[in-house]
Every structure is written in structure tokens, then in C-alpha cells.
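Budget justification, computational time. The allocation requested in the original proposal was used primarily to generate C-alpha cells for proteins on the priority list. As evidence of use, we reproduce two of the resulting records. The first is shown immediately below.
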Amino acid sequence: MMYFLISFYMLIFSIITNFLMMMFIKFNLKLLINFNFKNMLSMKIEFIMFFDWMNFMFMSTILLISSMVFLYSMNYMKLDKNLNRFMKLILIFIMSMIFMIISPNFISIMLGWDGLGLSSYLLVKFYQNFKSLNSSLITLLMNRIGDIMILMMISLMMYKNSWNFMFINNINQKIMMLILITSMTKSAQIPFSTWLPLAMAAPTPVSSLVHSSTLVTAGVYLLIRFNYLMNEYFMKILMMISLTTMLMSSMNAMLEFDLKKIIALSTLSQLALMMFSISLNLTNLTFFHLITHAMFKSLLFLCSGIMIHNYFNNQDIRFINQLNLNMPSIMIIFNVASFTLSGMPFMSGFYSKDLILEMFMMNLNNKFIYMMFFLSMSLTLMYSIRLIYYISIYNLNLNMNSYFNLNSLMNNSIIVLFMLTMFYGSMFNWMIFNSKNMIFLNMNMKIMIYYFILIFNLMYLYLFINKFIKKSIMKLFMLKFLNQMWFINLIYKKKYNIMMMNNKYIKIMENSWLEYFNIKKMLNFKLLMNMKMIKIKINLMSLFMFTIYLIILNLF
């Protein structure tokens, strides 16, 4: 009952912040609340809360999704003995994210950032096994890099006599580079992409929060706030990194069979798209796509949680089939969310993705960037259709390994998010971008993405259907290259081997040296002494018998 009340209060606060957002948009308001704690020479230690329409809109989305996730978790985790701990960790996670959103001060941003990192570490290792521990450690260490960058920014900002970035018009380029690296670590851009698929070791409600509106979007939100300080050099760096991440994650998703990992890789692809739109200086469009993406991605994860729950914790899409017979409503909602992800016209994802795509085509870029971008966009559509095919059409007749128990709490939370996924994009498109967008493109530019879909279909058929290259070494190498995130995983495997060698060294040299050198050596020494004593006793007995023999001989 307590968690139901928390969910209800979150929903109420979400509605209140939504109304405040509308009011701030209409009257163009901004609110700044300052708490001054201490003056330290020329520096002021203060806590500032900054509110504008963007803050309220983001908070409304987070609270709404969190409310639905709380309802969902009440049934999904009801048999877990650590349910109370799970709910408290989610609550800390949400509060840390909101704390970071309303902070224009580096010190308070650091507190929210650290809270996100710590709570995500504890949530990823919630299932206490070896895989969860490894995933949580990699997640923590990746986020630690961002924490170090923020600490360096705090020290470098002291020459400005303030840690409030909202009041700074120009900034040192070193600080801007640190901000860029910080955002890349949290939003899992190359070379920090590995932790995001590994974070799937967490329970599904956590995945729904982490990959929709909280942890991974923190880096994007930070760059949106700092966008006015970025110069052309940083924009180009961000463009190339985001394009590479988008292409890598989309290719990996085409070869993956783990349901949650495919959705996680689609999150990575969409985050790269947001970073790419920031590099084009489309901050409002980036924020709009961030909000719409949060809705349909949380819906995708909650639907996948029901599928995994009903198929006895099986996550392989080849064995999750015949949903049209077993769970038709969940199948329809999941397919709608997948089409929204791929940008189906007049759904939420269309209003943001189509605008980003057309604004990009109106800019003057080279052919290589055009090719990478359109190939990534076509791959998004391809892996969405592939996922729908395996879930809905592909049939292995494995109904004996499934049971279908649809709980009302889980259903209600999914239906609310489904309705918002359908209408959220159009509603906020009219609200934020109320002016008409005049976009002039020729026919070839408009249908270019279909050319890339056709080319990739031919490549896909060549790679997987052609029997002449079935056992080709090159084919196996390419599959391994694409499936292991372009061999980025190997870097962390090498680090893991070094850590394991260090663990063995500690085990031998620290934990076992007393046993090895004292007990075993003492036992061996005692055994040796016993053997020697036995030999001495035998020799003495022999000498005694020989003496008696000599005495007897002398007598006779």
C-alpha cells in the first residue's frame, strides 16, 4: 500500500509540473532560488535551484514514468525477498536525477551525478551473481571517469570565482572538453559504450528507468545546457563520435538475439542520434526527441519484462514466439512501440526524428557523413522489423515452456504509457514548435533512406543466406567484429584478466601464506622428525640386541 501511495503522489506531482511547464512556456518565465551557506574568501558556497519550462517538462516525464514503473514493480518483484530495498534504491535513483536536473551549480550537479552512479551500481548488482557483479563494476568504473572530469571542472572553475555555469558567457576550452567527456561517459558514446548493454543484468523495471529518462539521458541533458558554450571544433568532434556510435550499435542490434540487449542497443543508437542533433545545434529538437524517446523506450522495456516473466526468464527472441495467440494485446503494444522507435509517421517518434533528419539534410555536409547517417537510420528500421518478426511471426511451437498470467497492475502501467506513446509527440510538437517548419528538399533526398534499406537488405542476404560463404573465415570474423561492438569489449576483458591475476596474487601471498608456510611446513617437519625418530629407535634396538648377543657369546 505504501508503494501504491508513492506511485500516486509521483503521478500527481507529474501533473502539477506539467501545468507549471505550460505556464512557463506561455509567459516565458524562469525561476532561480538561491541558498547561500558560507562565504569562503571570494568564493561562495551556495545551493541554487533553477527552473524553466525545460526543467519542468523533464521532471514531469521522469515522475510519470517512475510512477508507472513503481506500479509495475509491485507485481513484477512481489516474490523477491529484497523488495523494500529495491523500491528504496529506485526512489534514491529518481531523486538523484531530479536533483541533477534543477542544479545550475557544479557542486550540486556533482552530488546528483554521484547519486546516480552509486544507486545505478547497487541496482545493476541487485541480482547477486557473478554476471551482475561484473556488469555493475564496469558501470561504476565508467561513471567514475565522468565524476573525475566534474571534479577537475570544479577546480578549474575557481578562477571564475563561481561554480554557477548559468552566469558564464565564455568558458575555458579545457573545461568544455571535460564537459564533453563527462557527457560521453554517462550517455555511453564510443569508447564508453560497453557498460550500457551490460547494465541489462539489472531487473527489467530498472532497465526501463535507466534507458528511458534517467541515467543515460543525464549526459545529453548536460550538453543541452552547455550547448551555447560549444564552438565549431567541439561540434565536429561530437558529430563524428555520435555517428560512429550510432552505426556500431545499429549493426550490433542486427545480430543480437537477447531481447533486452536489442532494446538497450536501440537506446544507444537513439542517444547517439541526440548527440548528433546537438552537434547540429538543434537543442530544442534534441530535447523533444529525448522526451518522446523516454516514453516509447520505457514502454518497450515493460512489455519485454512481461514476455520474459511469462516465458520463465527466457530472453532469447527465437524462443519468445506466438504472441499473437498467447498475448495479443502485449504484442500489439510492443509492435506499436517498435514502429514508434523506427519513426513511423504520425507516432511520437516521427515528430522528432523526421525533423532532425530533414534539418540535417538541409545542412551542407560531406557525402561520408550523409552515408553513415542514412545507413544508421535504415538499420534502425531493419532491426525493429527483425525484432517484430521474431516476436510475432517466427514460430518454434514452444508453448509448453510458457505460462500467461497478466496482472492488472502491470497491464495498467503499460496501457497508460501506450496512450502517451501514441499522443505525447504530437501534443508537445504543437506546444513547443507552434510555428510551421519550412523545409525544402528534392525527391532524391526524401527517398534516400529507402535506397540504403535496399542496399543493406542485399548485404544482409549475401551475408546470411549465401551457402558458398557459410564457412568462410571472413564471414566469421565480420560476425564477431559486429557482435562484440567492434572489439571494444576486448579492452575490458584484458583489464578483467589483469584483475583476476591480481586476485590470485592476493589469495596466494596474503590470504594463504600462513597456512602454506606454517601449517603445512610444520606438519611436514613433524612427519620428517617422526620418521627420523623411528629410525633412531630402530637403530637403538638393533644395537641393544647386538650387545646382548655379544655378551652371551662371551659367557659361553
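The second record produced under the same allocation is shown here.
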Amino acid sequence: MGELVYLRDFVVILAVAVIVVTFLHRLKIPAIAAFIFAGMLIGPRGFALINDIYKVEVIAEIGVALLLFGIGLELSLERLKRLWKPIIIGGTLQVGLSILLTYFIARIFGLSWQSSIFIGFIVAISSTAIVLKGLETRGETDAPHGRIKLGILVFQDLCVVPMMLAIPLLSGAESSASAILTALGRAALIVVGVVIASRLVIPRFLNIIAATRQRHLFVTTVLLICIGTAWLTSAAGVSLALGAFLAGLVVAGSKYRHQAMSDVISFKEVFTSIFFVSVGMLLSAGDIFQNVGPIMLILAAVLAGKFIVVLIAGTIMRLPLRVAVLAAVGLAQIGEFSFLLIRTSRETDLISDPLAANLIAVAIISMFLTPFALSLAPKVAAGVGRMKALNRLLNVSAAEDAVQKSKLRDHVIIGGYGFAGQELATALKGCGVPYVIVDLNSENIRRALDRGEPAYFGDITSHEVLERLGIEHARGFVIVINDPAAVEQAIRAARDAAPDINITARTRYLLDIEPLKKAGADEIIVAEQQAAIEIVSYILGMCRVHNTEISKETERIKADIDENPSEIHSW
């Protein structure tokens, strides 16, 4: 009957989650927060529909592994190499400063230096699962602040292993230096071994599996690579999630990357949702009310402290203020790996049980608040960006300083130098139309300068940058960046600076049309719309339909979208 208990718990989780998330969706509550709330309701400290959290945690860990595997698939090792600056510099600054700040605050409250450092470990870690899920949902993984967050999160995950190994040293338990070095060496060896072996073995292995043309076998193989690598690294002392992330990077280097992503996506969404439910099950509303004072004090200190730390890191890295603020808001919570650190320390006297319980409550509440914070972050960043005194104080206006005052007239400003921006620049140059390029991606700007393009590193949501680019004398402003919130802010900034300028914006989804029109865009190019037109044109042409009929159908698509964009749903 034991297996029926597991099945019953699984049914309870899914049923309550569906009801709660559906209801809260109508109130515009983010899905992640809704899943956490569902966990509070069904957990042993809620209505006790499920009493054994351990069984749920096993499923939840699979969810985290699949989430990190999916992120690894989207990145690839080559792309991760390009994130070395946020990983090495940003990660070191964020983790180091977080531990340092927490240490001094904890010492002020009378805690020992060992406990202060350990609490610094707990506070320094942010939630990889929630932050990456938020970036994925909002389509901001490739945005400048998305890359900063991702790099810092990767560094944090790498730090979990040495933090865990440091616990015996901090607690005074017997643990020789050679044992610590051996554990670190074993962890490093397994990570390097997995990457090297997988790069040599996995592509050939997937070729053999794909040759069978058995889709179910391919799906099983992908799950084996993900879960197997995660288990292997976990057994070696490295976090399970990091192992899954490495597995994703390895598969991303093969030609089966997109197929693997499509096969894993359904599993990932279900199991990740269960992870968020399991987080909520750890929280008790009664415990919060009994200790509301200390919990709220610690929560405020954590959110404010981590926000300031990332802002300082952004200042040192010379990030534009808007990017630094967005990254700071996104990384202000305490993460799921902090639970692992607290659990590992239970056999020591580093922190008392009441303090550990308060820290767990603070972590969960901060995770619950993160989706709301991410929704408000663009508005906060826009407001802070207009505070010129703060810009000068923090000295994070590198993007503005890099842009020289333009002397052009009747030119086109290209915001973004990805594929679309490059092609537009080439076309304008060929037609003799003057233009200037601005982008927050330093690699794109370096590439543009190597080609002799008039390019500047700058934030197109900044009034000052647009003014320096001569927007009041420009013929048009074209926005082709992968940050939906920044696109809307850039439109508003441009419309304020030059009310009569023609603004063209590109977006991925049809649901973005109305907000961008309200912001002041004259023309909106939608990737979904263009894809639909291309597909219809190609298929009708293949079916030998007359060109006149094809034109009628494509015009119908445009008319349907223009008249009722809100009634067309994107999945």
C-alpha cells in the first residue's frame, strides 16, 4: 500500500495546485507564488493533507534538476564562456560582499565569528530555480540583466560545495585540511571528468540512439543523461542541480539540443512546480505570526542588504544603473541551496534551532515575494534611472559616458546589434542613410566597431543616452533588443525626448502589441505574426495556390491581428 500513499500525495499536490493557481491567476498573482501558497495549505503545518515532506522533496529535487538541465540546454559551453565576466567578477563580488556584510551585522548582534560567517553563507545564496524561471517566463534570459543574474547564480552554485565543506571547520569538528582538500579535489575532478567524458561520449551515444528513430527511447536517454549526471555529481559531493546543469551544457553542444529541449519541457514544468509546492510546505503561518518581529527584521535586512551588495557590484563592474537595479532586485532573495546548508549544520551548534527556523521562514517569504518584485523591477529601475544625483553618486553611468554627442541629422538610431540590427545597419549603409548603433551588449558593440560601424555602448531606456544620440534630430528610432520591459521603457523615453520621431519596435509575442502601442510605438514588428505569414505563404505556394489568393490570406492575417491582438493567445 506504500506506493498508493505516494500516488495519493502526488494527486493531492496536483489537485490543490491546479485549483489554487487557477484562482490566484484571476487575481494576477504570479504562478510561482501561487505554487508556494498551495504548499503552505497542504503541508504538515497547514491543513496537513501531506505529512511526509521527504517524499515530496525527492520529487522536488528532480524538478530542480530538470530546470537546471533545461537552462544548460539553452546555454551551451560556448555561450557560458562568454559569461565569464558576470560569473567571475560579478559572482565573486556578490558572494564575497554578502558574506562580509552579514558577518558584521551578525557580530553586532552578539553572534560568534563562526556563526556569523555561516549565516553569511546562507544569505549569499539566491534562488536559482525562481530567478531562472522568472527570466524564462518573461523572455529576459538574453537581456543584459538576465546575463548578469545567470552568471552570478552559476558562481553561487559553484560555491555551495566549498561552503558545505567549511561547516565542520567552523563548528570545530575534527576535519583535517587534507580531508577538505581531498573532497574539493574529488568534486573538481568529477566535474571536469563529466564534461570531458560527455563531450567525447554523449554525441556518439546520441547518434546511435537517434538512428533507431524511436522517440520514446530518445526521451528516456535524455532523462538518463540528466538524472544520471546529477546523481553522479551529487555522489561526489557536488550539488545535484549543478550536475544537471553540466549535463544540459553537454547535450547543448550536440546537434540534438532542440529535440532534447522539446522532449524535456513537459517533465520540467510539472516537476519544477512540485519543487515550489515543497518549498511552501516548509512554512507555517502560525510560526510566522509567533515570531513576526524577528522574521520581518531579518527579512528587511536581507532584502535591503543583498540589493545594496549587487548594486555595489554593478558599480564596480561599470554597469548602467538600470541593469544593476534589475539584477539587484532579482537576486535579493535567499535560495533553495541555503536549506541544504542549514540541514547540513543541524548536527553542529553553529546556529540555534529558533534562528534556523527564522532563517528558513525568511528564505521562503523572500522567494514568495520574488515574482512580485520581478514584475515591479522595470518600474523601479526606470524611476531610479531618472535620479541623476544617484547616477553620479554611484558612478554607474558608464553607458551614458560612453556615448558621444551626435552631430548627425535625419539619421536612424538602431537600438540593439543582434542579427536584425546588423542586417538593418547593412541595408541603411547600402542605401546611403546615416545611422548610429547603441547596445548594452559589449560583445555586440565590439563586433560592430571591428566592422567600422558608428556604435556605442549605452542604455536606450536612458533619456541622456537618447539625447546624446541626437534623437531630437533623428528620422527614426528602431528597437531590436531581447528585453520586453526595456523595449517599452525605451519607447516612452524616446517619445518624451522627441514627440514627433517615428518609432519602430520588434517584439516576439502578439500580446505585447497593445502595451507597446500605448507606450507610443508607430510600428510594431511581431515575430509570431511574421512567422505565421511566412508559413501560410510557403504552404499555399507549395499547394500551387495563386499568388493573388496568397496575398489575400496574408492580408487577412495582418487585419485579424491589428483588429483583435488581445484575443490571440500565445503559448
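A brief technical remark on that second record: The chain has two domains: 2-392, 399-567.
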